[in-house]
Write a structure and sequence with these properties.
Helices cover about 10% and strands about 40% of the residues. By secondary structure, the chain is mostly beta strands. The radius of gyration is 16 Å and the shape is globular.
Length: about 120
């Protein structure tokens, strides 16, 4: 079976310079924010609670605690607005989706770090 035109277009949009990361990892996402005519890089650091989709449509959700309030942000993996993704810590989890972290606060909301 030969690839369709959609597969060809999608493969052209995918980035090859991204860091490998998984659910449970603590990541720092550097992304471009456009405010009027100005561009700046903003950093969002937290735990990856899910990855979903495939190909150019793949997304991941990062959760962090900000002043006692849980904040989640979903990013497209292959977005040109993402400058880089840094893995701060590798998490040791047994699930693909970490929705249970939404009910936890403070120290209980941490993920065990993988021993190297």
């Amino acid at each position: 079976m030969r690839p369709s035109a959609l597969d060809y277009i999608e493969s052209k949009q995918m980035r090859k310079d991204l860091t490998e990361f998984r659910t449970g990892d603590t990541v720092r996402v550097h992304f471009q924010v456009i405010e009027g005519s100005r561009r700046r890089t903003q950093v969002f650091e937290g735990i990856v609670i899910k990855r979903q989709g495939a190909g150019a449509r793949e997304t991941f959700t990062v959760r962090k605690q900000s002043f006692g309030v849980g904040v989640e942000r979903t990013f497209p993996v292959h977005s040109p607005k993402i400058d880089k993704i840094e893995v701060a810590a590798i998490g040791d989890v047994n699930r693909a989706k970490l929705y249970y972290l939404r009910g936890k606060v403070g120290r209980q909301a941490r993920v065990r770090e993988k021993q190297r």
